[in-house]
Fold:
Amino acid sequence: MGNVVDNEISPDDGVIVVKDLFKTFGKLRVLKGISLSVEAGKTTVIIGPSGCGKTVLMNHMIVLDRPTRGEIYFRSERIDELNEKELAPIRVQYGFLFQGGALFDSLDVFENIIFPIRQHRKITDWKAIDELVKTKLAMVGMEGFQNHYPASLSGGQQKRVALARAIALDPHIILYDEPTTGLDPIRSDVINELILKLKRELKVTSVVVTHDMKSAYKIADHIIMLHEGKIIAEGDTDYIRNHPHDVVQQFIHGRVSEADLAALRLGGTKFKTQYAPEDFK
Amino acid sequence: MLHTTGAKTVDVIANAGRFSRFVGRTCVGSMITCLQPKTYSLVWTQMNAIGVRSVPVVMVTGAFVGMVLAVNAYDQLAGMGLEERLGVLINIAVVKELGPVLAAIMLAGRVGGALTAELGTMNVTQQISAVRSMGTDPIKYLVVPRVLACLLLTPFLIIYADLMGILGGYFVSVIQLDINSAAYWQYSANGVELWDLSVGVVKGFFFGVVIALISCYKGFNCREGAQGVGEACTEAFVGSFISILALNFIFALITKAIYATFWTTQSLL
Ligand SMILES: Nc1ncnc2c1ncn2[C@@H]1O[C@H](COP(=O)(O)OP(=O)(O)OP(=O)(O)O)[C@@H](O)[C@H]1O
Ligand SMILES: [Mg+2]
Structure:
């Protein structure tokens, strides 16, 4: 894996290959020329500040969004020009964890998890399905919640149920959009272990978007850092940890830049409000 | 000025194109669904959600329409000594026009609003993307069952509205205004033909489909946020409302032409 951003990428370089991807929404240019490849059986982690386009990039990997320009390949086949119907058999091979969970709120947890199974197979053995749902829920620490509706779960619980749904069909490729955000440190680590276990035991290829550097270091084989719609650093954990670029160092150490501090000082002007603190005594 | 007009026109045409494609895909999806018994349960669920709970609203609408017609028309007819023919007037108006149209408008508000809000929220919270991400066609899974449910149910709801309209008219005419009951029914039976009733009910199929298609389309294409969902609901209702009235007008022209080719028009009074 080269340390320079490689523009001469070929469709056979990985399971998923993104070539020179540009995406604009109206006037907003979100992705400005992304090329990357995801290696089979490895975990690729995408990091980057909020709003830099990580979710948009992830959506392109299963063509939920169409590129403004650029190409996307899956197992050497170009997929960004396929229509929805042709994409279906490809999407079935993926598990996709949405940043917001995206659970179906009219279905309970059990029905949510069997949704992907039900869409593509005829269920005859309900006992086995019960078992399967139980094991998937246990993997994310949500056993016993089968009959709850998403609205009655906390954000972190919804996220974990969504993860259980994403792995319901035992996909070979799983895309996780911020799997540990909103979870407590122990739960986060359980998810990290889950991702590692899936890779070890089932040779799952994973792409993980995260802000959580601890998690990134633990699970990543390869880290890609996005900044303002471009890849500014790419390499293994050690390479990223010791990357000379200021922006990278600031991001991985969670340090505030001088510019941000200056903005905070400017915003520190006090406004007179109608009420003074003593009014509340 | 010219620029904005041009941009608006392009927008309208693009939107019409998108809507046509949506309708096309829904039609194809509906036909496939009809051939797949395993998807019937989805339609059945929607029929329960959409239909059963609409019955009271539609019945109330029908009853009031019948009663108001009786109250208003009575004086006119009584002035000419024709009050016994009140039944024809009420019943033909209820069965042919007011029952179907007002029931449909009621449904556009009640069902259409719910459909747009539900699908709009699903869109905003990425649930529609989630359906796509699992290799399922959201049109087939979400839109088709709703359209089919509306298609199958609206005619029945219209029959309920008609029935209540007739009873409401009867109640005011015979019980309150003291018109002879036998004469009331006699004139009604002679004046209202099976044709009139069928026209009203057949309209229901079209109204139902139009309501469901517009509402689902608006839900699928709603903008982000609570405000986006709200706007989509309003647009869906206004769109359905206008479409129902326009469709009704077209129907009146067509059915009149058909009627005139096969039968001669008779005077009601
Ligand atoms: N459908 C859309 N329409 C318009 N703009 C969009 C759309 N989706 C994303 N954007 C814009 O693209 C930019 C990147 O969004 P994205 O969700 O990819 O950020 P992100 O890197 O995932 O951030 P976070 O870490 O906060 O999730 C944002 O400025 C957002 O406003
Ligand atoms: Mg994101």
Summary: Residues 185-202 of chain A form the longest helix (18 residues). The pocket of adenosine-5'-triphosphate (ligand 1) is lined by residues A 25, 28, 30, 48, 50-56, 99 (CB under 6 Å). Residues 6-89+207-280 of chain A form a domain with the Rossmann fold fold (CATH 3.40.50.300). Strands of chain A lie at 16-25, 28-38, 43-47, 69-74, 77-78, 94-97, 173-177, 205-209, 222-227, 230-235.
